[in-house]
Specification:
CATH architecture of the largest domain: 2-Layer Sandwich
Structural class: alpha+beta
Distance between the termini: 78 Å
Strand order of the largest sheet: 1-4-5-6-2-3
Largest sheet: 6 strands, antiparallel
Strand content: 15-25%
Number of strands: 13
CATH superfamily of the largest domain: Histidine kinase-like ATPase, C-terminal domain
Number of helices: 12
Shape: rod-shaped
CATH class of the largest domain: Alpha Beta
Amino acid sequence: MTKRIRFNPARQLVGRLFLGFWVTFIVTGLVTYYAVQFFDSDVTIRPADNREISALYRVENLLLRLNNDRNRSVQDILGHANRITRAIIVAVDIDKQELFPHQGPPILQVERDAMLQAAYRKSPIVLEKDGFSAVGPVYLEIKGKAVAVFVSHPLGPPDAQRPLTYFLFIALVMSVVLSYLFARSLVKPIHQLREASRKLAAGSWDTRVGSPSVRRDELGDLARDFNVMATQLERMWSGQQRLLADISHELRSPLARLQMALGLAHQQNVDPASLARIEREAERMEVLINQLLQLTRAEAGNQEMLEIKLSSLVENIFSDAKFEAANSDKTLQIAPIPEQKVIVNEILMCRAIENVVRNAIRYATSQIEVSINVETGCWELQVNDDGPGLSAEECESIFAPFYRASLARERESGGVGLGLAIAKAAVQLHHGEIKAMRNDNGGLNVTIRLPIDGREKWTGHSQTNTH
């Protein structure tokens, strides 16, 4: 049994492009033709005056004289009369009801029809139309053929070009409209795909493409593939979150037992140096587990947000940070804090600010500067240090979990690469943004920008300043 193959060019993008151009061309031609016919004026009739009748009879006498030449045909006689009078002589064959071939500009169909209808009138009249005027008929017998003669006089180029002007104008309008609609049908799904890609890259894992996925061309295939990819990424991300949460919870039990065993070992006078090393590793593991749990909570979303003053939010953080900096022989300078109320999740936002400030203290050489500024609809925290700084590529990567930059981030620093990842997750939960860049002193600048109300999406523009 043979399978019947159906060819549908509209299901491929190249077919849609081809058909779109051809449909535009055909529709433009048809609409233009009928529009020109609609706007084209009809032939009007008026009585001929004495001057026009005299000119017609002079042509009649000329044709009668030329008719005496037996070697000339009807076409030769009409052509020779045209050259003598410098007029356009049009003759209608009465028997065949058609025009003889003539010299001069072509005659439109509407003008031909008017002369054929007027060929049987008893007295001369004038046929007028845009760019055309003819007086007649006068009846003659030339070379044995009964003819009705009209003398035509063009009325000038401007009026004669009006149909061409109509044609060009209508063709331009139709092609622009149809081309715009056709281009929009192709560009709209591309814009939707681009917007969905941006949302997916920003961490909105539930983003899907809607209307483009129902198309049956290459753009529809791309949209469906995008939705499949987004679904797979969402599953992988959810699995990673569950894995982190499960590992964090499962590690707490053996850690607790390890700490109990350390207590018993101390009571039994086991080697103090070995116990101290085990205890340090246990503390590091506890820090890692706590940070994993914080990261999981920050990325889970749906956290309660309350109104609080900025000064109250950061007071304890900056107080502890000054103490930590002083113990490291470093200076922490804090600019005056605005008396502005913001809506945030206090626990997560404190953790984010604390991680950024402590990161700056850890890697600064001698000085850290912190400032908070309030702008229309948002507030901004900037932390600058005079440490070794990072490359542009590393500035993009330091907010990834467990990332360690190549400069000054060794295990001796005590970090595990989750502090800035927690800060980024908390900032994104508040619909804000966090960025890092090299400052003028060669150190690192970290900027956090957040809406005043962290529950609402911020539509401001990114402005990152350095000190």
